[in-house]
Structures are given as C-alpha cells and as structure tokens.
Design goal:
The chain is built from no helices and three strands. It is mainly β. Strands 1-2-3 form a three-stranded antiparallel sheet, with no helix packed on it.
Length: 47
C-alpha cells in the first residue's frame, strides 16, 4: 500500500491550473513524484 499526496493551484474562475501528485512507500520511505507542477491549458471562454 502507498501513501498519496496531491497539491493543486486554482486559476481565475476556480479552474484547475497546475497539480502535483506523489506516492510514498511507508515501508522503505521511497518517494516517487508522478506529476510535478503539471500545467493545464486554460478553459475556452464562450462569449
């Protein structure tokens, strides 16, 4: 079993802009960063 950590940043309009996800093995303490500061495109705006 792994421990999971996630962090995110919201942009204008409360849209998800960036995120990080990591896994940690509690038995040996090994940490694997799966996504580091992944940027998401801004959503299209209907006018």
């Amino acid at each position: 079993m792994f421990q999971v950590a996630a962090a995110y940043t919201l942009g204008p309009g409360a849209h998800l802009r960036r995120f990080r996800v990591g896994l940690r093995c509690p038995q040996d303490g090994a940490l694997r960063l799966l996504f580091d500061d992944a940027r998401l495109p801004a959503p299209a705006v209907d006018r």
